[in-house]
Write a structure and sequence with these properties.
8 helices; four-stranded antiparallel β-sheet; 29% strand; Rossmann fold; alpha/beta; six-stranded mixed β-sheet; 31% helix
């Protein structure tokens, strides 16, 4: 695992992304950037195009036109696996954890470590458990045993496992879709600590959130979307919640960048 290049370097750039679903224009020439060592938030009302955009960056969807660059190099992902291989990991609201598997099994799902030679290859459980513990420790995630089943974890612990999996495999970018939705105050604070740790490691973190207080706490850069367009690109230090609400609702008619 490697860390991203120097903080402040543009890690991901989406350029003039267009995506249509039949007659529905989901994205109308969207361009954003996300930098290494920063949290970049994408905000907007439901239907603004946020989820479609991150699905394209993550290789789940393919743009009709436009391009994606990763550290200045054009990339084209035909699957989530291709995006993951390039160092882009995504934590969705559903988390993608299998409840009846243990923590270490979830961390290594589809990335199992094997020993032996074909056709006689076996799971190297000892190595995976050791590495799973390291992945959690690196983000200061306190879970008693990596052998515990996900079913028995709290909401915050599950989110921490999903984030640890993304961070453990990502060398470039971590995308998080509503990372603290439905979590309590204490668990939200823990997840935000994890986000700060990812940033401190030099990763580019992209967050989708409807929680403007959280966006302003966590972010360096904020992109505001409305009706398939980016209508503003703001540094978090230069804006406030009232302006964000005005931009999203259309009360502010002047786009900012």
């Amino acid at each position: 695992m490697t860390t991203s290049p120097e903080n402040g370097t543009i890690a991901v750039q989406a350029i003039d992304i267009v995506k249509n679903y039949g007659s529905v224009e989901a994205l109308r020439g969207v361009s954003i950037t996300a930098r290494a060592g920063e949290v970049t938030s994408i905000i907007g009302d439901n239907g603004a195009g946020k989820s479609t955009l991150i699905k394209i960056i993550a290789g789940v969807e393919k743009a009709d036109s436009g391009s994606i660059e990763l550290y200045g190099k054009p990339v084209e992902f035909h699957s989530p696996e291709a995006a993951r291989a390039a160092g882009i990991e995504t934590v969705y609201q559903t988390l993608g954890l299998i409840e009846d598997l243990s923590i270490w099994q979830n961390l290594f799902l589809d990335r199992e470590r094997l020993v032996g030679f074909p056709p006689f290859r076996f799971l190297n459980k000892r190595v995976m458990r050791t590495e799973a513990r390291r992945m959690l420790d690196e983000l200061d995630v306190h879970i008693p045993s990596v052998k515990a089943r996900v079913r028995g974890l709290s909401g915050g612990q599950r989110q921490a496992v999903a984030i640890s999996r993304a961070a453990g495999w990502s060398s470039q970018v971590v995308i998080m879709d509503e990372p603290t939705a439905a979590l309590g105050v204490r668990e939200t604070a823990k997840v935000e600590e994890l986000v700060h740790r990812l940033k401190a490691r030099g990763l580019a973190v992209i967050v989708i959130s409807h929680n403007f207080d959280q966006v302003l706490r966590l972010s360096e850069q904020i992109w505001v979307m409305r009706q398939g367009n980016v209508i503003a690109g703001l540094r978090a230090a230069d804006t406030n919640g009232d302006e964000l609400v005005a931009l999203i609702t259309g009360a502010s008619a002047t786009p900012r960048s």
